[in-house]
């Protein structure tokens, strides 16, 4: 009985509940203490699982935005922009309503009305615009017409759409680098572009040429701004905003002369199209200062459109090595005169000579019999120049080669410069260097060496940069010309120039075709063999590097012009030298007329002014204004408002430049009769129309009639013919 009572007592539910309640109180107290301790710890440390809560809240409500620095502008010698920053816009129409809400529609709702508005600002007809706006796509772009839009046009479109309460048109902004002259020393100027797909990062990086070499100077330094937002994304008023303003990049002014550069590009472009050489280089340098006045190459590319860039990224001025051939005889001659081994009226037997286990031949293997060394110079006899280095001694000749800087970089302000090579091995190779074989050089090295002849025995360092300008402080870093002495004297340099006139004006001279009317020049041609894949020299056909160097005026040289053409298709030319003449003669004549104080060519007696911004002005008022000013212009379109122009606003405009103006509405084709090829190519670039050009000279006929409607998909063919 007692045991039963004890069990009943132990199983008392009220007593069990008491124990359970105590246990729960203890558990809750421990839990509360744990939570309190955790909160206390978080309040003290501000961290959860290693993450800083204050920092996270700060990030949640704080906007930190990079303020992009403007990239510096690159100018030519006269202050005209060659490379500049530009904000461009691409127009997109949203056709689907899947991203819209009833309160905030962002798609095209009234395509007819939108097309009517857009036609007032774009060079596209209302019908074509409507066709695009009613396509079965989620969104649509507008081809060439809808790309690279200016801020003025975008603002005008947005204002008209807002006033008409129309939706569905958006604009994608892109910061880009503008090269307003198109093909203009493109590999030398280089390229700057975005190196990331991040839409927030609009910074540009130099990837080629001067843009790469001076990237740090041009880039400047980005700034930033930091401010607080509320949970709805609105900026909190009356807050302290932290801000560091960006420092814009510095500007660079070059030595390039825009007028000579444009002329050179035009001539080289024509020759390259006719003869399609593997490589063509042409560089005009001031003989006394080393300033590069104009330089180009083929293949090349358009810096703005990037057309042609896939052909090569190499700058042939500094990244192209080749055997220079007989232009090296200019320097061999100078060294021989200095060492007293060149006796112009002594005779030797031309044709061939045995040396170092090999044979050196003249271009005419049987030779011209016994001739004087002066005639040997005129005829470009290899044997004559082997005699010179034999007599002065190979070691002495090597010292001269070293003093001319071969095998050494010039230090010109361009990336990836090659140093060339002069192995100077056996006697045969040493002898071959006297006429430019067995030694590899770059065009800029040859220009530096040639300057010793025009500058009294001292080489001037070729350079492209005139000065660096800090816009904010106004400070300028001027790049001065520098000289390096060689082993030849002032008297030797003058004598060399005099002898080199024989190649131009002698009846047997190899450079007779390079004479420039009205000026006395010294010149030397070159025809260098090329090494094939098997390591042997190629022969036959046009497997050569044809070249010429001209220095003028002889009495006091101001200019050095050096042209190389590798493996051209002759297309009726009797010799590769005739292809080189097509570049050298017109450019050297124009340059001499321009830079000569005594005979200034009337073509250069032009006035230059800044191009006015004509965008969004009425077509009729612009026509009257340009007609009154006597300007050459063409209207592309029949609309009442100008929407695009070439040249761009604030660029340099000469009396002879053609102004091209696109109106709103559909594009119409101007009468191209008499247009030069360069203007036809600009028209193609402006309109996006594909152009096929046949012949040389000026436009004689066109397959599409004047004033006919054209679109970017149109194909235009023009026939050129000579026109005095």
Q: TL;DR?
A:
The chain is of the alpha+beta class. The protein has 22 helices and 35 strands.
Report on the structure:
The chain is α+β, with helices and mostly antiparallel strands and 724 residues long. It has 4 domains: 2-45; 65-254, Penicillin-binding protein 2a (Domain 2), CATH 3.90.1310; 258-602, Beta-lactamase (3-Layer(aba) Sandwich), CATH 3.40.710.10; 608-721, Trypsin Inhibitor V, Chain A. Helices cover 32% and strands 23% of the residues. The chain contains 22 helices and 35 strands. Strands 4, 5, 6, 7, 12, 20 and 21 form a 7-stranded mixed beta sheet that branches. A hairpin with a 6-residue loop joins strand 20 (465-469) and strand 21 (476-478). The protein is globular. It starts with a helix and ends with a strand.
List keywords for this structure.
single chain, 724 residues, alpha+beta, Penicillin-binding protein 2a (Domain 2), Beta-lactamase, seven-stranded mixed β-sheet, five-stranded antiparallel β-sheet, 35 strands, 32% helix, 23% strand, globular, membrane, transmembrane helix, Beta-lactam/transpept, PCN-bd_Tpept
């Amino acid at each position: 009985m007692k045991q039963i009572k004890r069990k009943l007592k132990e199983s008392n539910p009220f007593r069990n509940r008491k124990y359970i309640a105590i246990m729960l109180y203890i558990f809750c107290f421990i839990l509360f203490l744990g939570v309190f301790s955790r909160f206390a710890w978080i309040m003290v440390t501000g961290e959860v699982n290693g993450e800083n809560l204050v920092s996270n809240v700060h990030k949640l409500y704080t906007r930190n935005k990079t303020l992009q620095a403007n990239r510096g502008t690159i100018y030519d010698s006269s202050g005209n922009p060659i490379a500049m920053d530009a904000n461009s816009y691409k127009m997109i129409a949203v056709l689907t309503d899947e991203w819209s809400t009833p309160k905030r529609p962002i798609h095209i709702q009234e395509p007819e009305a939108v097309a009517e508005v857009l036609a007032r600002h774009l060079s596209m007809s209302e019908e074509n615009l409507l066709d695009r706006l009613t396509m079965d796509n989620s969104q649509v772009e507008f081809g060439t017409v809808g790309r690279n839009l200016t801020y003025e046009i975008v603002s005008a479109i947005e204002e008209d759409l807002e006033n008409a309460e129309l939706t569905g048109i958006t604009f994608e902004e892109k910061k880009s680098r503008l090269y307003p002259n198109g093909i203009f020393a493109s590999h030398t100027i280089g390229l700057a572009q975005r190196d990331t797909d991040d839409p927030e990062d609009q910074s540009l990086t130099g990837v080629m040429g001067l843009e790469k070499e001076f990237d740090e100077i041009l880039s400047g330094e980005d700034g930033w701004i930091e401010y607080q937002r509320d949970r709805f994304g609105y900026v909190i008023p009356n807050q302290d905003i932290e801000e560091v303003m960006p420092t814009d990049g510095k500007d660079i002014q070059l030595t390039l002369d825009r007028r000579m550069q444009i002329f050179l590009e035009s001539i080289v472009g024509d020759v390259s199209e006719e003869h399609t050489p593997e490589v063509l280089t042409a560089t005009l340098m001031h003989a006394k200062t080393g300033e590069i006045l104009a330089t180009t190459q083929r293949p090349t590319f358009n810096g703005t459109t990037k057309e042609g860039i896939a052909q090569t990224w190499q700058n042939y001025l500094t990244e192209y090595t080749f055997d220079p051939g007989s232009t090296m005889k200019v320097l061999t001659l100078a060294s021989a005169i200095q060492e007293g081994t060149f006796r112009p009226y002594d005779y030797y037997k031309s044709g061939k000579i045995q040396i170092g286990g090999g044979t050196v031949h003249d271009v005419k293997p049987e030779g011209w019999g016994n001739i004087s060394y002066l005639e040997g110079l005129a005829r470009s006899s290899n044997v004559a120049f082997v005699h010179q280095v034999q007599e002065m001694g190979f070691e002495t000749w090597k010292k001269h080669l070293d003093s001319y800087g071969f095998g050494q970089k010039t230090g010109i302000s361009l990336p990836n410069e090659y140093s060339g090579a002069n192995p100077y091995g056996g006697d045969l190779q040493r002898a071959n260097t006297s006429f430019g074989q067995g030694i590899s050089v770059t065009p800029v090295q040859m220009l530096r060496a040639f300057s010793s002849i025009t500058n009294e025995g001292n080489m001037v360092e070729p350079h492209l940069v005139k000065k660096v300008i800090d816009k904010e402080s106004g400070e300028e870093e001027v790049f001065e010309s520098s000289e390096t002495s060689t082993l030849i004297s002032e008297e030797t340099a003058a004598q060399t120039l005099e002898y080199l006139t024989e190649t131009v004006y002698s009846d047997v001279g190899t450079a007779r075709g390079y004479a420039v009317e009205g000026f006395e020049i010294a010149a030397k041609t070159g025809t260098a063999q090329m090494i094939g894949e098997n390591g042997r020299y190629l022969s036959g056909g046009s497997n050569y590097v044809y070249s010429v160097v001209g220095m003028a005026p002889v009495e006091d040289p101001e200019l050095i012009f050096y042209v190389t053409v590798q493996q051209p298709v002759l297309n009726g030319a009797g010799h590769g030298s005739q292809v080189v003449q097509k570049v050298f003669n017109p450019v050297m004549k124009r340059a001499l007329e321009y830079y000569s104080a005594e005979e200034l060519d009337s073509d250069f007696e032009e006035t230059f002014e800044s191009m006015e911004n004509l965008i969004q002005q009425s077509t009729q008022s612009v026509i009257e204004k340009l007609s009154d000013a006597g300007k050459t212009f063409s209207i592309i379109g029949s609309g009442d408002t100008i929407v695009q122009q070439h040249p761009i606003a604030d660029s340099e405009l000469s009396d002879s430049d053609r102004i091209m103006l696109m109106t709103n509405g559909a594009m119409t084709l101007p009468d191209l009769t008499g247009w030069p090829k360069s203007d036809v190519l600009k028209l193609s670039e402006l309109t996006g129309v594909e152009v096929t050009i046949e012949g040389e000279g000026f436009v004689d006929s066109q397959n599409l009639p004047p004033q006919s409607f054209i679109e970017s998909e149109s194909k235009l063919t023009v026939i050129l013919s000579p026109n005095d």
